[in-house]
Amino acid sequence: MMHPTLKVLSRIVAITLALVGAELMAVVEPQSLMADPAIKSALAAIARNEPETINEQVRLTEIPAPPFKETVRGLELKLRFEQLGLKDVRVDKEGNVVGVRPGALPRPNVVVAAHLDTVFPEETDVRVKRKGALLIGPGIGDNGRGLAVMLSLIRALDEGGVKTTGTLTFVANVGEEGLGDLRGVKTLFGETLKGQIDSFIAIEPGPANRITNGGVGSYRYRVTFKGPGGHSYGAFGMANPIHALGRAIAKIGELKVPQNPKTTFNVGRVNGGTSVNSIAFEAWFEVDLRSETMAALEALRAQFTAAVESGVKEENIRWNNRAAVSADLELVGFRPAGQTADDSAIARIARASVIAMGGIPSFDSGSTDSNWPMQLGIPALTLRGGGQNRGAHSLDETFDTTDAHLGPQTILLTIVALAR
Ligand SMILES: [Zn+2]
Description:
Blueprint: H1 4-33, H2 37-61, H3 71-83, E1 87-91, E2 97-101, E3 109-115, E4 129-131, E5 134-136, H4 144-160, E6 167-173, H5 183-192, E7 199-204, E8 210-215, E9 217-226, E10 230-231, H6 241-253, E11 263-272, E12 278-279, E13 282-291, H7 294-318, E14 326-335, E15 338-339, H8 345-356, E16 362-366, H9 371-376, E17 380-384, E18 388-390, E19 398-400, H10 406-419
Helix pairs in contact: 1-8, 1-10, 2-4, 2-10, 4-10, 6-7, 8-10
Bound molecules: zinc ion (ZN).
């Protein structure tokens, strides 16, 4: 019989070995998955179906989905989820479309998401032109590619007969872009699937070897300057909201920010005034402040608010506080900065998946839906749908379809490894 102390020790050793084993498995799994006939067949299905995936990408891109107006494109995704055999397909209160591919067990639950929304306003011509391997049109990559890849994954998993222990939940979510402010994932994690998400993969455009494990945080403000206003000649001598705005923007333009962590600022919109011969009663600008860490972001925010205050103060002093101008700061967007460690299990699985598909893994940072779970401490990455995307958020966005199938293939390995 074993001595009780020895028994405890051997148990500790056994548990430690099991834990180490689990970690090692996590690393080698995508490589070993390649030997599984079902996986092989699913990977082959992705390559075989890629021309149809491209057609789907074009079709989905041509359904307009401006911020806060994702409903029509969402219903199309709901229909496709149902056609592809997902279970419990539903639209949550925010507009996220959710469908489940059950495994043997409900957990781990791996959520795979692609955002529905674009940055383009309703009247934008979203038709896609094809020139050889190139697709040209606003939103063709971001996120027409992400949505089409998600559908390609669901189809390939079925055609390959891939079975998972855990569950895969697919989500076409709203509100990733701009002032959407991650409202889709916030509701997904806070309500719709609260407490039921073990890992999260967002799909965005880009080459298959990119692994986005840094979440760039941002604050976005609309700053409104107000004063009584008046005639440009008759009322001359009073503080001017547009002049105060100009002073504030000039100061923002001079802000010093660190290169590392990368920290940035941009005044992206300016508006105000009623006519050339009036002192405006109102003017506003919108600013975007970003950083890879919360500390640097908070420091930048403090500098920015000081710049606005001093711009207003200088304008008022200039005119001896006659008809003083005031500024109102409205927070219109916040995305927390976050990080998934390079050596976390999810990052190691993604890296191994890239290598298994013949790529060289490249870690980077971005501002995507993954920011939200990263900040919650839930393992999360943004992976890329393959091909090459240029000019995202511009009217001549271009997607190069060459070898684009490597995107969904790499993601398939990752999500199956996570759900094992
Ligand atoms: Zn995107």
